[in-house]
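Q: Could you fold this chain for me?
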Amino acid sequence: MRRLRLFLLACLCIGAGCRREEPPAFQGLSQAAYVWRQGWDAAAVASLAPAELPTEVGALIVLVGECGLGQPPRAVRPPWPQLLATGRPVSLAVRIGTGSALGGAAEPNLQPGFALLHEGLAAARAAGLTVTQVQVDFDCPVRLLSAYAERLQGFKQSAPDLAVTITVLPSWLSAPGAGPLLKSVDGFTLQVHATQRPNAKEPARLVSAREAIRWIAQAEDLGRRPFRVALPTYAYVACYARAGTFLGVRAESRELPAGTAFTQLMPAETSEVAEVLAVLKSGRYPLVRGVDWFRLPFPGDRQNWTRAGLGQMVRGEALAARCRVELRAQGALTDLTVYNPTEQPLALPPVQVRWTGAAWVGADAALGWEVAPAAGNAVRFTVDPRAGFLAPGERRVLGWLRLTQPAETLTAEIGGEQLSR
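A: Sure. Below is the predicted structure, expressed as structure tokens.
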């Protein structure tokens, strides 16, 4: 009997040890946005007025410096009084590129970035802001994750009153040094967008809901600690040489790299982002405490959602995604314009124009399109291989069409859908 009691006791102990830990209760999602600007003009400063910010965004993560990106370390000096007036908690971020961090005995050398954080922190506090958290954005090579953890621990000792967080790449999650790295900091934001270098032979994706959800599950299992997820609002243009060599990406710059022969457009596809957001809101991954949106839209942004669009997405509302063609006929001559009435950047669309009651004389296309006759009484405006985006609210001249006489009917189509008459 004594042996039986001992055996049963051992079984109970083993069962208790193997019992799966209950997941924490879902606490809902908080929403923050990156204020990622290198320069500040009057319009950008004015747009920080509390009434101009999306009510859904409850906190701001403000860039205060960049280094290792092909130029000397550069401090960013945001308008602290206006940030204070927003009434939102503000944390600070620094972007450290690999250009100056790798190589040498101090690899990775993060001191220039840490110095920028200290400088920004001093300026923010002098302006009256209460900053309790900072974030380091460094795409560390997997082989150096353990050394990265050591550098972060050293930085924490120099700022004991701060919570130190980092951005985490999905490629780190299966690396041996990931666990110690996550333990070395007070929190992290998992970046699930722009995780791979574009390839001309494959569809260019800025974010994939399927992959993002897989990485989120992996991050939960790895750290068993709360974290946040970064989702995109912006769009990239990937640029390639004629042979398909990758030349780089462009965001707000209209200038393409020298030798660009064609581009791939990489928007923050709203269906993909919405799917990830819906999963997070469902509480399936209770360790995810919030979303950090990259980045807060500002006046003049061409490849970003509008702030209204960001608010719609957070509320679970669909964003419209269709351009409009506007025709203005003056006798036998018709001017064509494309208009983006939505809250997000859209790809320049191919357009087909059909008519009855007249013959074609000629047509011409504006920059971004090429024109050629199509079957029947029609011409087709195809998109130039180097075309980019149409900004939210932007109108752009598409071209003109001249007929022998005024048309009886005149229609324009995008993707086979009749849009205007």
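A (continued): The chain is about 25% helix and 30% strand.
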